[in-house]
Each structure stands twice: as structure tokens, then as C-alpha cells.
Design brief:
The complex is a heterotrimer of chains A (98), B (168) and C (710).
Chain A lengths: L1 H21 L3 H26 L2 H31 L14
Helix pairs in contact in A: 1-2, 2-3
Chain B lengths: L1 H24 L3 H21 L3 H25 L13 H23 L14 H11 L2 H22 L6
Chain C lengths: L6 E2 L18 H18 L17 H35 L9 E11 L2 E9 L1 H24 L6 H20 L3 H19 L6 H32 L4 H11 L3 H17 L8 H4 L5 H10 L4 H8 L1 H5 L2 H22 L5 H21 L3 H36 L19 H15 L5 H18 L2 H4 L1 E2 L2 E2 H31 L7 H4 L7 H16 L16 H18 L6 H26 L14 H7 L4 H51 L4 H21 L1
Antiparallel strand pairs in C: 1-2, 2-3, 4-5
Classes of the chains: A mainly alpha (98), B mainly alpha (168), C mainly alpha (710).
């Protein structure tokens, strides 16, 4: 079952990457990142069957950090929305030339 | 009962992947969030099937129950969602949803009748929670403490960042 | 001497000079080098030395004068001190060589220079009769000229720099004459060329001086090319470059075309360094340097390096009789050519310069015909009287400068037409220079007579019958060439007497033409300048005793001949054979030589008596006289035929090829680089975060692919 789990993990990760590259909505972008994290978690849990319980511990860590990251990231999104009036990434042009 | 185990595994896997695809293609952030929640539920099931019940429970509690809630909060706060009631429309969608739901109920009934099947190749793991806890609080104690610091920082940071500036 | 690696030359362990003062020979070039370094540093001290201004010798303000004097005193002591020490050491080594039978040279190598497979070149010095003779000449006359320079350059701001260069020159010259192999000689060769350039252009704020220095260096270079090719041939044929090795190989190998080629290329080097036809053009221009420099470098030492080279390479030239014939022929033609030009020169230094070229021709006449002793003898005597003549001219110019400065008049202090009657104001100098004139003309019993007569007699003797006479050059039999050479030598002797007497009469005889106001300021040179002149005068008188011929038994016969016999005897015999000139013929030759000298002097006295040439109203010389005054317009010819076309070619190549090509590549390349960088920068770093995400994904893909495929 480990192999199948890893394949699922890979698929989910790929879908997450496509989402990050494609979507313009900042919040949905964030959620795609969460999807990638979940895929990785699945990998860890699958391989924990071979390598011991450290995999589970790692998953716990990942989840914790994902929570922290989501909190801070969304706070930034709120800030940005207040400043620019939109969460559309193409509206955030300050770094671009001119 | 290996076949049943495989069937269940593939069912949850299919749910996860299809939900992920649907999540990525939604325009409206609210249904997108909900599809992601579905992904997480499916993954939770997979975790349990991979002898990680603790992680599975944590997944539901933390990821689906807290993080995704925060996402939906923010969407609501910023008024980004459109006022559509349902996402998937039409007969095909309703039929698909119904089949999936029935399959899941059937699963449940079978499980209630017998012991949870396991993959024969994998050894049995008892007391996963004990092992995880032992590992977490001895080998990885430093990491654990650091994550608590990170959470503190995140809380303070989030509050500060999202605070509305009071203009006098 | 633990810091030096001692490599014993074969047989040097039993050399009679081993363990004597000769072991300290390495000090000989090192002492002047040390002097050069110290003086160079002293010249850099601020406020005590300024860059060389024009030849104007105006005195400085007294505020800086005191410090200036202190520096000058220090420099004088250092410079003369090292010279005296070197001379003393040379005398000591010379003394230790007396009464010792020296068949082989005393060679000491001190360090490896180029160890490259077959090629083993070491820093080594060779003490033998020839090198010690040259060393004595260089250090002795060098010391006298240093003393003279203290007075001559007294008011020059570049005093310290001058002595630094002068010491450096002596160091290089000593390396040249003491080197034990051709490469070490060449180091000295190049070094003296460098110092010549530095000293000719000493007053570098005048464009003409700089040009003269460049000319000297460039023309020398042509000769150096020949020297280098000769060394290449030597190495490729014999795998040796040290004197002992090469000469032994040549002697055992015999006359071959390669030896002929080596001799010819060596001679090319001599033609450049010793100002023979056609590479003599730099020497008259070299008079732009200070007069003591002309005395030391362009009369006594550097220009004689070519003669030394031929004498040192005697075995090579002895085995290449055609080359020897060429040497003697070129020497003769040069001697005659230069003498004709000297007849019509108005600058006192130019007269002496062309005279030097002519006398060098004599030396090559000698060494070319295998009379190595005669050539070296003339080298020594010529060093005496030519140095004297130049130093005397320096005293004259010094006085003329002082006179013009006194009246603030701006005129040429070196032009003979501005002089006249100076014997009344500078009697000692006049007397000394008169002695030297007699010597150079070849009047007995002065030094020049013996050396010049010996050359002519030797050439005639070989013309009568010798292996050299049997050889041929370009199809002409050697005997014919040698007779022609003798004839040239005789005519040149006549002309020498004429132009030297003319010079003396114009400068010292008759009435003074400098001007009534200036006359009051004309005076004899100070003692520091006159003393070396007088010392040289003594040497000019007695120098002939160095090699008295058997014909005139007034003292020890052939001292120099015996002295140099181990070095050049075999080679001389090879070319001269065993021909014996009948006694009567010898006496006749001597008589002819003396008669020629006297005739020339008498002619000049009559011709130029009462001649008061006026510079201001001088008519432009036409015809033959004009040709001579303009030195056959050789410089103009070379300029038109060689220099201008090359400059034009270089200019056009630069303008059409180099400039657009290089500029386009360099600046274009830079522009292209900047443009590329800017494109990459502006397209990939434009603040579009989505693009960044794509790039990250792409990069990660590449890395994963690489990792998984490796």
C-alpha cells in the first residue's frame, strides 16, 4: 500500500503546484499550498510504516507549522486587501518596473 | 479481507484526487475551501488505513477543523465569496454525489460488522499514540518546544498584521 | 660566500689563481652596482634632486644650495669610492696574475640561471688576461671620468641620477667583459645599451636628446638581433654557450658554414654596438648626452665592446676567414667614411664622435685580420687619448657655457666657429689635447703611433701572404682585400691628422671669436676636471710602451702580445700564418705611417691658418664640402627610405585594422555583455511574483530530474 499512497501523494502535490502557478486569487493560492503540504504529509505517513514512528512526529510538526503559516499568511492577505482593495495577484504591481 | 482493504484504499484515494482537482478549478473561494476540506477528510481516512490513527484524528481536528475554518473566516471577512448556494449543479453531479455517499455508508456498515481489515503485508502496530508520544517528547523534544514558540510568534504576528489601524 | 653556489669549472681546482684575490672577482661588477643603487636612492630624496632640466647649468638659489651640496658630496663619495675600490681590486687581481703561468682562464660560476634540459646557463665570471685588461681600462678610466664628472655636473639638478646611471653603466660593462659565457656577456651588452639610452637622454626635457637616446637603442637592437641569432646557432650546433665550451668545440670542429654564420651574426652585433657602417648613425647623435658620458661610453668603453667580442671570439673568427675578411673590410671602409665626414664638422663633439667611429674602424681592421693584440692595443690607447679629448672638450664647453651665462647670451657652446684662441685661457687643457691630437694622428713616441702602426703593419704583413690572404670574400681574394684595407687605413691616417689638427686650430688657435664680453669669463677648468685630463695625458704619452714593436728597441718588446698570447695567440697564428715580413719592408711601413701623420698635420696647419670662420655669416656648404657637412645625408636618407614608410605602414595598420577591430571588439563586447545582462535582468526580475513561482517550479524540476537521472 505504500507505493499506492506515494503515487497519490505525488498526484496531489502536482495538482497543488499547478494550482499555485495558475491561480490569481491569493487565498486560493494559499489553499493550494496547504494541499501540497497535505500531500507531503501523506508521503511521510506512508513511509513511516517502513522507517518508524518518526514519520508521524514529522507530520505533527508539519501540521503545526502549516497552522502558523496559514495564520500569518492570511493576516498578510488581509493587510494587503485593505491596502490594495483586492487579493488578485495581478493587482499587486509595486515590484514591477515603471 | 485484503480486497476490501484495497477497495477502501482506492475509494479514499479517488476521493482525494478528484476533490483536489475540483478544488483547483473553482472560481469561487468558498466552494474551493470546502473541496479542500473534503481532500483532508479523504486523507484522514488514508492515514488511518496506513496505521496512523493519531495523525488521522489530528488531521481532522487541526487541518480540517481549524485551518480551513480560518480560511473560510478570511474569505467571509473580505467578502470574496459570491452568494451561490451550490457549486456543482445538474443531475450528473447529484447522481455522482449520491453514489459516493452510498458507497461510504456501505463501507461504514461493513466495518461495523467486523474487525478493521488490515493489509497482510504490514505488521501490526499497537499503541501508536504511545509510540508517537514517546518519540515526540524525548527524541524530538527540542523541535516540539520550538514549534510552540513558532505558534506563539504566529499568533502575535497575525494579530499585529491584521489589526486595523485606528486613525484618529 | 656560503650564499653562493660554487660550481667548479673543469680544471679550475688546480688553477693557479684559485684561492687568491681572484676569488673576489664577483665584487667587481657588484661594487658599482651597489653604488648605482645607493645613488639612485639618494636621487629620490625630495628637495635634493629634481628631474633633469635642460643643459642649462644655472646655479640654484642658496636656500637649497646647502642641502644640494650635502647630497652632491655624498653622491660623489659613493660613486667615486666604489669606482676606486673596483679599480683597486682589479689592480690586485692583476698583480696576482703576474709571474703566474696562466694557460687557461679562471672561471667561477656563482649561481644557476637557466637550467633547462640541455641548456645550462650559469652566472659565471672569467678571469683571464683579456678580461682583466678590459677591466683595468674600464675601472681606471671610469674612475677618472667619475672625478671629472663631479666638476662638470656640479650645477646640474640631476647630479645623483647621473652618477647612479654612470655606476650602473660600469657595473654592466664589467659584467660584459668579465662574463664567462655569451649569455652573461649579453646581459652586460644589453645593460650598457640601456645605460647609454638613459645617459644620452639625460636631459630628457629636450626632445632632441630623447630622440637621440631612442635612436641609439633602436639601432643597437638591430645588432643585438644578430648577437642573439649567433647564440642560437651556437647552442643548436654545440649545445654550449660558455666561452671555453664553444671555443673548444669550434677548434675541434674546424671551419664549417655554421661557424661562418655564427661569426657573421656576431659581427652584426658588433656593427651595432661599435657603430660601424651602416649602423653608426646613432653615435654622432649620442653626443646629446653630457660630455663625460661621451668620453666614457662612446669613446673608451661601450663602443669597444664589439672589439672585445671579436677578440674574445677569436677562435670562431679564426675558423671563419671569410667572415674575418668582412670584418676587416667593414672596419676599413667605416674608418675612411667617418674620417671624411669629420673633416667638415663644426661641432667639436661631432668631430670627436666621427673620429671615434673612424678609430673603431681601425680596431676592426685589426681584429678582422687576426691581429687581435693590435686591435686590443689600439682599444687601450684610443681609450686614453679619446677620453682625454672628450674630457678636454668638456672643459672647453664648460668654459664656453660659463662665458655665455656671464653675458646671458644664447649661443652654441660647442660650435668651433664660436671658439678660437682658447689656448690663452685654458693652457693646461690645450696642451693635453694637443698631446692627444699628436697621439691620434700617429706621431711617435705617443701611444697612438705604436698602436696604429702595428695595425697597419699587421694588415700589410697578412696581405703579403697568410692563410687569411688565401681566403676569399664574395669571390675577391683575401690578399686584394687586405691591400685595399691597408690603403684605406693609410688614407684615413692622413685624414685623421688633418681633421684633428683642424679642430685644435679652430678651438685653440688663432683669435678668439667668442665675443669681447665673453672673453673675460673664459677660464681654465677647475682642478677636479683638469686633473683627470692631465692623468690621461700622461697615459697617452707612455701608453705606447704597452706593446713596443721589435723594430724599435727602446724598452720591453711586445708586452701586450705576450700577455694576451694564451687567449688569442692560437687564433692569430691561424689567420696570420708564419709569414715573416722583411726588416726593410717593416721600416718602410713605419716610415710611411709617420710621414702620413706629419704630412697631415702640416697640411692642416697651412690650410687652416688664419681661418676665422664666422658662424653668423657662414655660407651654406655646397658640393663635396656640403656633402661632408651633412654627413652624406645618411640620416635624411634613412628617414625617407625606412623610417617614414614604416611609420606610415604602422599608422595605416593601426587606423584601419587595429583601431576599428580592437575598439569594436572591446567596446562592442562590453556593450553586448551589458545588453545581455540587462535583458536577463529586466525580463527575469520584473517583480512579477507569478513568474517567479514558475521559475522556481521549473528550477525544482530541473534539479529533481538531474538527481534522478544521475
Amino acid at each position: 500500500m505504500i507505493a499506492e499512497a506515494l503515487i497519490v501523494s505525488a498526484l496531489l502535490f502536482a495538482i497543488g503546484v499547478i494550482g499555485v502557478l495558475t491561480r490569481r486569487n491569493a487565498i486560493i493560492l494559499f489553499m493550494c499550498v496547504e494541499l501540497m503540504l497535505n500531500a507531503v504529509n501523506l508521503s511521510f505517513v506512508a513511509l513511516a510504516k517502513l522507517h518508524g514512528v518518526a514519520g508521524h512526529v514529522f507530520v505533527i510538526m508539519v501540521m503545526t507549522i502549516a497552522a502558523a503559516e496559514a495564520a500569518v499568511g492570511l493576516a498578510i492577505v488581509i493587510s494587503v486587501f485593505r491596502h490594495f482593495g483586492s487579493v488578485d495577484l495581478s493587482a499587486l504591481r509595486l515590484l514591477r518596473d515603471g | 479481507m485484503n480486497g476490501f482493504y484495497d477497495f477502501q484504499f482506492y475509494l479514499f484515494s479517488l476521493m482525494a484526487v478528484v476533490s483536489a482537482l475540483l478544488f483547483v478549478t473553482r472560481r469561487n473561494p468558498v466552494p474551493a475551501a470546502l473541496w479542500l476540506v473534503n481532500v483532508m477528510f479523504a486523507l484522514s481516512g488514508l492515514y488511518v488505513m496506513l496505521d496512523a490513527p493519531f495523525v488521522g484524528v489530528i488531521q481532522v481536528l487541526v487541518y480540517a477543523g481549524a485551518i480551513m475554518v480560518v480560511f473560510v473566516f478570511v474569505v467571509m471577512l473580505l467578502n470574496l465569496g459570491r452568494a451561490e448556494i451550490s457549486d456543482l449543479r445538474g443531475l450528473a453531479a447529484r447522481l455522482g454525489a449520491g453514489i459516493v455517499g452510498l458507497a461510504l455508508v456501505a463501507n461504514l456498515l461493513v466495518l461495523l460488522r467486523s474487525r478493521p481489515p488490515r493489509a497482510e503485508s504490514a505488521p501490526a502496530i499497537d499503541n501508536v499514540v504511545t509510540d508517537v508520544a514517546a518519540s515526540l517528547f524525548t527524541d524530538y523534544l527540542v523541535a516540539f518546544e520550538l514549534t510552540s514558540v513558532v505558534l506563539l510568534v504566529a499568533v502575535v504576528g497575525a494579530v499585529l498584521l491584521a489589526k486595523k489601524r485606528v486613525t484618529s | 660566500m656560503t650564499m653562493l653556489t660554487l660550481l667548479q669549472a673543469a680544471g679550475a681546482a688546480e688553477h693557479p689563481l684559485a684561492g687568491t684575490v681572484a676569488e673576489w672577482a664577483w665584487l667587481l661588477p657588484l661594487l658599482p652596482l651597489l653604488g648605482a643603487v645607493v645613488n639612485g636612492l639618494l636621487s629620490l630624496l625630495p628637495r635634493l634632486s629634481e628631474p633633469g632640466l635642460t643643459g642649462d647649468v644655472d646655479a640654484r638659489e642658496s636656500a637649497a644650495a646647502a642641502a644640494h651640496t650635502r647630497q652632491q658630496t655624498l653622491v660623489s663619495i659613493v660613486a667615486t669610492g666604489v669606482m676606486l675600490s673596483a679599480f683597486g681590486l682589479a689592480v690586485a687581481i692583476f698583480a696576482s696574475m703576474q709571474g703566474v703561468r696562466l694557460d687557461a682562464p679562471f672561471v667561477r660560476t656563482y649561481a644557476q640561471w637557466i637550467p633547462a634540459g640541455n641548456l645550462q646557463i650559469d652566472w659565471g665570471l672569467q678571469i683571464d688576461q683579456l678580461s682583466m685588461l678590459m677591466t683595468l681600462v674600464v675601472t681606471g678610466i671610469g674612475t677618472l671620468i667619475h672625478v671629472f664628472s663631479i666638476g662638470y655636473m656640479k650645477s646640474d639638478p640631476g647630479f645623483a641620477r647621473y652618477f647612479a646611471y654612470l655606476n650602473l653603466f660600469v657595473a654592466c660593462m664589467l659584467t660584459l667583459v668579465l662574463g664567462s659565457s655569451y649569455p652573461v656577456l649579453f646581459v652586460g651588452w644589453e645593460g650598457v645599451g640601456l645605460c647609454s639610452y638613459l645617459l644620452i637622454g639625460f636631459w630628457f626635457s629636450e626632445r632632441a636628446n630623447v630622440e637621440a637616446g631612442k635612436k641609439a637603442f633602436v639601432v643597437n637592437r638591430i645588432g643585438d638581433f644578430g648577437f642573439l641569432v649567433a647564440m642560437f646557432l651556437m647552442f643548436s650546433t654545440f649545445q654550449r654557450l660558455d666561452f671555453s665550451g664553444v671555443h673548444a668545440a669550434v677548434t675541434s670542429g674546424g671551419s664549417t658554414p655554421v661557424v661562418l654564420a655564427i661569426a657573421l651574426f656576431l659581427f652584426l652585433g658588433c656593427v651595432g654596438k661599435s657603430a660601424q657602417l651602416p649602423l653608426y648613425v646613432w653615435l654622432p647623435d649620442a653626443m646629446a648626452g653630457p660630455t663625460p658620458v661621451s668620453a666614457l661610453i662612446h669613446a673608451a668603453t661601450m663602443v669597444t665592446a664589439g672589439v672585445y667580442l671579436v677578440a674574445r671570439s677569436a677562435p670562431i673568427f679564426a675558423h671563419a676567414p671569410s667572415a674575418s675578411l668582412l670584418v676587416t673590410l667593414v672596419g676599413a671602409v667605416t674608418a675612411l667614411f667617418a674620417a671624411t665626414i669629420a673633416l667638415r664638422q663644426w661641432d667639436i663633439k661631432k668631430v670627436l664622435a666621427y673620429s671615434t667611429v673612424s678609430q673603431l674602424g681601425y680596431m676592426f681592421m685589426a681584429v678582422g685580420s687576426g691581429a687581435y693584440t693590435a686591435g686590443v692595443f689600439h682599444l687601450v690607447t684610443h681609450a686614453f687619448f679619446k677620453a682625454l679629448l672628450f674630457l678636454g672638450a668638456g672643459s672647453v664647453i664648460h668654459a664656453m657655457h660659463a662665458a655665455y651665462h656671464h653675458t646671458h647670451r644664447d649661443d652654441d657652446a660647442q660650435d668651433l666657429r664660436n671658439m678660437g684662441g682658447l689656448r690663452r685661457y685654458m693652457p693646461a687643457t690645450a696642451a693635453a689635447m694637443a698631446l692627444a691630437t699628436l697621439a691620434i694622428a700617429g706621431v711617435p713616441p705617443f701611444a697612438g703611433f705604436f698602436s696604429k702602426d702595428e695595425i697597419l703593419s699587421a694588415v700589410f704583413a697578412r696581405a703579403m701572404g697568410s692563410p687569411l690572404a688565401s681566403a676569399s670574400l664574395f669571390g675577391m681574394p683575401g690578399a686584394t682585400i687586405l691591400y685595399a684595407v691597408y690603403a684605406c687605413g693609410l688614407v684615413t691616417a692622413l685624414l685623421t691628422a688633418v681633421y684633428m689638427t683642424r679642430m685644435m686650430m679652430l678651438a685653440f688657435g688663432g683669435r678668439n671669436r667668442t665675443g669681447d664680453a665673453e672673453q673675460g669669463a673664459l677660464h681654465e677648468a677647475p682642478l677636479v676636471m683638469t686633473a683627470p685630463v692631465l692623468a690621461l695625458a700622461v697615459l697617452t704619452v707612455v701608453g705606447g710602451w704597452l706593446n713596443l714593436p721589435a723594430l724599435i728597441p727602446i724598452g720591453p718588446i711586445g708586452v701586450l702580445e705576450h700577455w694576451l698570447e694564451p687567449v688569442t695567440g692560437a687564433s692569430a697564428a691561424r689567420l696570420a700564418g708564419a709569414t715573416h715580413v722583411p726588416h726593410a719592408t717593416e721600416q718602410l711601413l713605419v716610415g710611411i705611417a709617420v710621414a702620413t701623420a706629419v704630412l697631415g698635420i702640416a697640411f692642416a696647419l697651412l690650410r687652416y691658418r688664419g681661418d676665422q670662420p664666422d658662424k653668423a655669416h657662414a655660407p651654406v656648404d655646397t658640393g663635396v664640402a656640403g656633402l661632408l657637412t651633412r654627413a652624406y645625408s645618411v640620416d635624411a636618407g634613412v628617414d625617407a627610405v625606412i623610417v617614414r614608410p614604416i611609420n606610415a605602414l604602422a599608422g595605416s595598420v593601426f587606423a584601419r585594422g587595429v583601431e576599428p577591430g580592437v575598439d569594436r571588439t572591446m567596446s562592442g563586447g562590453g556593450t553586448l555583455l551589458a545588453w545581455t545582462a540587462s535583458v536577463f535582468g529586466s525580463r527575469f526580475q520584473d517583480g512579477d511574483v507569478g513568474k517567479y513561482a514558475w521559475l522556481i517550479a521549473a528550477g525544482a524540476l530541473v534539479v529533481i530530474a538531474a538527481l534522478s537521472l544521475s
